[in-house]
Amino acid sequence: MIGIKPRPSGANFEIANDLENSSARIIAIAQQEGLTLRSTRTLAAGTGNAFCFEFSEPIEKYGITVRCVIDDTPLLMIYGGDERFSPEFYWAVQGVSRDEPEPTPR
Length: 106
Known about the structure:
- By secondary structure, this protein is an alpha+beta fold.
C-alpha cells in the first residue's frame, strides 16, 4: 500500500528547521502503534528534502512501514508492505514536485 496523506491543518511540514524534535515525534507515534525503527534516510525530492523513517512491523516477517515527510509541503507519503518493493516507493518520493501537470488537450 502506498498513500499520500496531507497534513490535516494544511500547513507545511518544516522538519528541517527542527529535525531532532520532529524526528522524535514521528518515531514516538510509530512506536505507540507497535512499530520499531529500522532506519532513517534523507532523500532529495523535487520540492527539497524528504525525511524518511523505516519501521519494521511486529507481525510481518518481511513487512515494513515507511513514512516520508516532504519538507516545506503538507505531504506525508506512506508505504506499507514487503520490503522488497521499498526501492520503488523511495523512487516515487524523489519524484514529488510542486509542478502542475500540463492540461491534456481535448
